[in-house]
Amino acid sequence: MGLILRRYGTLLGFLAIIVFFWSQLPETFLTARNLINISQQISMLAVVAFTMTIVMVMNDFDLSVGSTASLAGVVAAFLFSLGYPVWAGISVALLVGLLGGLFNGILVSFFGILPFVATLGTLTMFSGTAFLISGGKTIFGRDIPGTFSGFARSGVPLDGIGLAGVTMPFLSIMAVIVLFLVWFALEQTTFGRRLYAIGGNMEAAKLAGIRVRTLRMSAFALTGLGAATAGLMYASRVASANPTQGSGLMLDAIAAVFLGMTMSEEGEPRVLATLVGVLILGILDNGLTQLSVDSYIREILVGAIVVSAVAFSSISKQKR
Amino acid sequence: MISTKWKTAALALTLLAATGVQALAEKVVVITPFLAQPGTQFYVEGFTKAAEENNWDLNVIDTAGDVAAVISRIEDAVTQNVDAIVINVDPAQVAAGLETAKAAGIPVVGMDAGADPLLVANVTSNGYGMAAETSVYVANRLNGKGRVVMFVLDAFPPVQIRGVIADAVFKNHPDIEVIDRITPDVQDGGVADSRAKMEALLAANPDAGSISAVWAAWDQPALGALQAIEDAGRSDEGIVIVGIDANPQARDAIATGGNFEASVAQDFEGIGRGAADVVSRALKGDTIKESVIYVPTKLITSANAK
Which residues in chain A touch residue B60, judged by CB atoms under 8 angstroms apart? Predict the structure, then answer.
């Protein structure tokens, strides 16, 4: 019994949340349309959380993902406003994310700065750069090409599988693609196994001949790339970019990874578990809004659920 | 064994059941990313009072600055099948959500949000009207004769329209001469640079009476000009200063009875009530022709600044 609760406590909690909303909102909650809505609403957070998992596997953190996301959106929008084509804006924005992540990786692995400190510093730097480029303003309206904002509003029609009038949004599809890529990298390649080895014991990994520095650096670069991807998805969804719009993503992404970590026996981050964490956060937002629960009570509840899940998992591990 | 986690969850669920379910009243949702800002709080206060009078089941959602979350919450409200949605954010940024609401036939009303074909109507203050109030105040104070300095910001549409009106009013008085039309650097809000620009103008026009009035399109340049005039020791020349928005600093300056004589206050609570009015008309099925509905503003002078 204890073992089951320990292993599956969070999963059971997740199912309980779904059953609760289903019983309270029998007509609207478990509908294809609402579930697809949720998948679209969480897609940006999901991409950040999935790629955040990559560095958290090594017990590292990246606090700069939110400002990287904002910066990527602002860079793309700024280039659009100068008349550059959509593909150019997107490529440069992704490159900025990759280089920003690489910079984080160099600070952490070559200069040996604690990730918390290094990425706190770059958080401010990236955010300042976004403010500088945008002049502190929101870039919107005619400056944003219709093909760019149209991406977030369209998707693949699901008429073929019997869901007439419902489409699978491109944003959700993006999240699934990133999920698959991260899952493949972490679970199916030596790259991933080495990251887990570094997370298990960095000294031992070094002694075993794993190139810890290069691996940490590339992991941070991937997290930066993921954050930039999410930032572009966000900018597309709101058809605009401003220098603070991604800032909410960072804490939620870390919370999602932590929620996921309560599901593995060793307390390691696993990207599929991170998905459950993201789903818990997204479903709570969606369901509580539909139940007209006050936004501030919603925030308290979400925080309390994260803390209690992690506390429960940590207590049950101490007992072992 | 019942763990802490389940106790917490049970408590949470009880709380939800208690707050969540209400029956039959018309459901109205206000969604804003800016609830922490003072102006928004007044809108919401006005709206809430009107909602109570109408017995609406009102839910106010704050997304704490997150605009994408506004779209998500609009989608949720549509799924929940509410009767009306009110937003307080640029409609162009949440068009994805507005389209969902439109497809479901749920009216969306803007509360100082910006005009958009996807909104039933936007309720706001009339920028043209506010500029007319202050520029006419200046013209009348000068008895139609004098040299006026303007502070404008044509790059920002809501402020640009104010300048257009002041231009027209001053042009309509043959003896009023606009000696400079200044666009201050607004990086710091506009006070410091307006002050520097005004100091330069005062130096270039050293004679008493060579500057009769300062018309500013918003309060910060007016405050900067006031500082420059006071520091130059020229506050007794009777230079008339006016601003727009009546922010607390401007009200204080106006209340002292010095050179800063007038500004215009928006009725934020009235905008909230106005938005509620549009909602109730939309719920009744009225056709609302005007895409923007203006709530009257108020000229603030030393008589009513406090």
Answer: 294-295
Q: What confidence tens digit (pLDDT) does each residue in B108-161 have?
A: 999 998 889 999 999 999 999 999 999 999 999 999 999 999 999 887 778 889
Same fold flag, B23-125+268-295 and B127-265:
yes
Tokens standing for A249? 């993503």
Give the global pTM. Answer: 0.84
Interface test with B, best of A74, A291, A299, A305 (most B CBs within 10 A): A291
Q: Which of A36, A234, A238 to mutate to test the interface with B (most CBs of B within 10 A)?
A: A238
Q: What is the CATH number of domain B127-265?
A: 3.40.50.2300
| Residue A7 lies inside a defined structural domain of this protein | no
CATH topology of domain B23-125+268-295: Rossmann fold (3.40.50)
pLDDT of residue B2 exceeding 50, the answer is no
Residue B13's pLDDT is 54
- Domain ranges for chain B: 23-125+268-295, 127-265
Q: What is the CATH number of the domain that holds A281?
A: 1.10.3470
Predicted-assembly ipTM surpassing the 0.95 threshold:
no
Test B5 with A297 for CB contact under 8 angstroms: no
Q: How many CB pairs under 8 A join A and B?
A: 134
**Residues 6 or more apart whose Cβ sits within 8 Å of residue A193:** none
Which pLDDT score, from 0 to 100, does residue A296 have?
85
pLDDT digits (tens, 9 = 90+) for A78-96: 999 999 999 999 999 999 9
pLDDT, mean of residues B292-299: 95
Q: Is residue A223 part of a domain?
A: yes
User: Does A22 map to a domain?
Assistant: no
What SS3 class is residue A246?
coil
Mean pLDDT to the nearest integer, A184-199: 96
Residue B256 has pLDDT above 50, yes or no: yes
A161 in a structural domain? yes
Whether residues B9 and A13 touch (CB distance < 8 A) is answered with yes
pLDDT of residue A319: 64
